[in-house]
Amino acid sequence: MAANSSNGDHQTPTKSPPLPSPLRFSKFFQSNMRILVTGGAGFIGSHLVDRLMENEKNEVIVVDNYFTGSKDNLKKWIGHPRFELKRHDVTEPLLVEVDQIYHLACPASPIFYKYNPVKTIKTNVIGTLNMLGLAKRLGARILLTSTSEVYGDPLVHPQPETYWGNVNPIGVRSCYDEGKRVAETLMFDYHRQHGIEIRVARIFNTYGPRMNIDDGRVVSNFIAQALRGEPLTVQSPGTQTRSFCYVSDLVDGLIRLMEGEHTGPINLGNPGEFTMTELAETVKELINPKVEVKMVENTPDDPRQRKPDITKAKELLGWEPKVKLRDGLPLMEEDFRLRLGVDKN
Ligand SMILES: NC(=O)c1ccc[n+]([C@@H]2O[C@H](COP(=O)([O-])OP(=O)(O)OC[C@H]3O[C@@H](n4cnc5c(N)ncnc54)[C@H](O)[C@@H]3O)[C@@H](O)[C@H]2O)c1
Ligand SMILES: O=C(O)[C@H]1O[C@H](OP(=O)(O)OP(=O)(O)OC[C@H]2O[C@@H](n3ccc(=O)[nH]c3=O)[C@H](O)[C@@H]2O)[C@H](O)[C@@H](O)[C@@H]1O
């Protein structure tokens, strides 16, 4: 019987195992944490990647199908030894070895998520199932970027995480808001059934540099319109409200949530609340006082009010946003000027 065999079935190895590749000890492999970011070529994802890459102990893998994201957002990392970019659609299974998963992949602007609603549902449901399956196989911690849209057209204001929402299940926005609600359910079922370490962030309207110029969301629309000298299109009635969070604050919140001890769901957003008419007037005043503000028709099921209750984020993550709308808009203006080629007079 072999001396080192516990059950007697094993042969004593006659040959020692091969040495690991010498590359195993190079700088490339010395990271402590390998992190997957799905949707990392998008707006929030690329800012998250920037922040994760600042830490030399992190190795970052991005997967994206480039539906609304772009390699351009990640160009400073392409070729970096701790960075890898892969064209991949999350509705297909993925085999990679990672310690953490930030799962962002999903079109976020209403014009894009409504463009192919069935695909949006597949991305939210099958995409999240695939990422949870990966997390289960690896024992990895997974964070989902859910949304304030799970509250629908809210009847409670501001919205705490305990509010179950007011969502139209058959409307044109349902592919996104019901899709995210199922994604949250899947996260908690995998947690309860399989013990997966989960984190769920409910993000409220976030803005900043790198949003697509023709993204269709309100802040990017107004800034692009102001710079092009076109009327700012306020969708009626203009009294509907949103609360806008600058992207650096949001990324800080996501990382705190991932690194902390709480599953969530946790609201991440800036409680400063504005009507769309107020937003248009602010953009006009800061960027181009000559443009006109024009009232246009709205889209179905547009939520009338939205403001996060961030008590939980403050208490559990020690997080609150720092950048006020009036300070964030000029930072975004600078980026849009560069990309549109419009100089400041
Ligand atoms: N920006 C916000 O205000 C906001 C608010 C709430 C929630 N969120 C959530 O945050 C995440 C990122 O939003 P964003 O504003 O950066 O949007 P974005 O559209 O800029 O980024 C989404 C990224 O996901 C990719 N993607 C889409 N479908 C995919 C698929 N099937 N497979 C692989 N990649 C896919 C896109 O190409 C893009 O790079 C989304 O999950 C969104 O629902 C954003
Ligand atoms: O933060 C959230 O939870 C969600 O918010 C947004 O959805 P929405 O608030 O409808 O975002 P916008 O399309 O930017 O619209 C905001 C408001 O601006 C108005 N709007 C939009 C565009 C425009 O040109 N003018 C205008 O007045 C809309 O009617 C709406 O009332 C995002 O698009 C979602 O991805 C995200 O999940």
TrEMBL record:
Query: One cellular component GO annotation, for this chain's record?
Result: cytoplasm
Please state every residue range assigned to the domain named NAD(P)-binding. Answer: 36-330
Q: Which reaction does it catalyse?
A: UDP-alpha-D-glucuronate + H(+) = UDP-alpha-D-xylose + CO2
Query: Pfam families given for it?
Result: GDP_Man_Dehyd
Where is the protein found, in the record's own terms? Cytoplasm
- UniProt-annotated stretches for the region Disordered: 1-21
Tell me where the signal peptide lies: none
Q: Which GO terms describe its biological process?
A: D-xylose metabolic process
EC number(s) from the headed UniProt entry? 4.1.1.35
Q: Which cofactor does it need?
A: NAD(+)
Membrane spanning stretches: none
Q: Where is the composition biased (Polar residues)?
A: 1-11
Task: Spell out the InterPro entries in the cross-references.
Answer: NAD(P)-bd_dom (IPR016040), NAD(P)-bd_dom_sf (IPR036291), UXS-like (IPR044516)
Gene Ontology MF: a single term = NAD+ binding
Involved pathway(s) = Nucleotide-sugar biosynthesis; UDP-alpha-D-xylose biosynthesis; UDP-alpha-D-xylose from UDP-alpha-D-glucuronate: step 1/1
The UniProt keyword set, sorted, is:
Cytoplasm, Decarboxylase, Lyase, NAD
Indicate where this protein is primarily found.
Answer: cytoplasm
Fetch the PANTHER family from UniProt: UDP-GLUCURONIC ACID DECARBOXYLASE 3-RELATED, UDP-GLUCURONIC ACID DECARBOXYLASE-RELATED
Give the record's family classification: Belongs to the NAD(P)-dependent epimerase/dehydratase family. UDP-glucuronic acid decarboxylase subfamily.
Q: What does this protein do?
A: Catalyzes the NAD-dependent decarboxylation of UDP-glucuronic acid to UDP-xylose. Necessary for the biosynthesis of the core tetrasaccharide in glycosaminoglycan biosynthesis.
Name of the featured protein: UDP-glucuronate decarboxylase
Specify the species: Acacia crassicarpa
